[in-house]
Fold this protein.
Amino acid sequence: MGNFSRNTFHPEKSYVGVRLQQGVPLVDADWNEQNDVIRQEVYDGLAAVGADGVCRVASGSSTYAFRLSPTGTANNFQFLAGPAIVGGRPVRIPVNLTTYGAQPWTDPARAARDGVAVLPALTTPAAARSDLVYLDVWEREVGQAEDGEIVNPVIGVETAVRLKREVAVRVAEGSSALPAVPAGHFCTPVALLNRVAGGAVIQADEIEERRPFLDLGPTTRYLPLDPVFTTVTGSPAWETGISGPKLFARKPANITTAGILPLQLPHRARLGNLTYHIVVPNGSGSVLILLARNALDPADTSSLFIGGDSVSVSGPTPVRRSARVPREQNVHVVDNRTYSYTLYVWAGGIGELQLHGLLLDFEF
């Protein structure tokens, strides 16, 4: 342990800085409290923007995050590296495809040196059993015995120690709930192992995901739209067709009126693109599709088409279209307190019309 005069940091005092006065001695407690105050600000800020979670990381055209997978060996599993935030503390599982059994704290001597409980070997279940896999995060001191570069060779003595944040993947066998958390430790669940009796090798279908995902910054999400259009006026009505297991909106050949689809959109979402596929089994013509915003106040008779697309279609070949919702005057920001949202489709001079794969993407 480091040699400190005293610890004056208490988060409940809500200090945000330490100011050194002129002409006074510089003491270790002031220096250390300043560092602790800054770290607590980071922890509180990260905890305020979201709960514990595993962060998705983009790499080229793919996105990955910390996750478990089988090893094919008895009572072991491997996990991919990736960042996470636990108790407001950012951590990174640093090495890809590390196994549970290869973690350093399976060694009792190493666990004792670092002041944490040893990671016990996993056991083969005698009966069907569920085991909770969770991340355990804590901080510990590192001195010159572990890292010789801490000592400046010009001075020759250990002037300061370091704090290191560690993360271990632990397993609570026979439990689906987190165990009691030791002081100074922060934990979050990542998976449940639903193991069969006598099964020494953990199988892929025994790993039940419990990873909470944490999306920092704007994240694109996708909202598939059920193709259940109604007819604005007249009859017969628009229909919901079936092509194998897939549903689509169908305008019969003998109807000319517009189809209307009320939308339930996430409040404060920022709308991006409306994507759809048009199929005209016979004939040709033009199709107009519009996204409308309608005021909820009965006294406000205004409405606004905030996005749309017009396309000429000929023949039965599907046409894929994507229309971006404009961002002028923030019309792309969903406000469910003031407006309702509707999708309209008009088809001029076309017989039968089909709309497939309606998809709206948005950001938070």
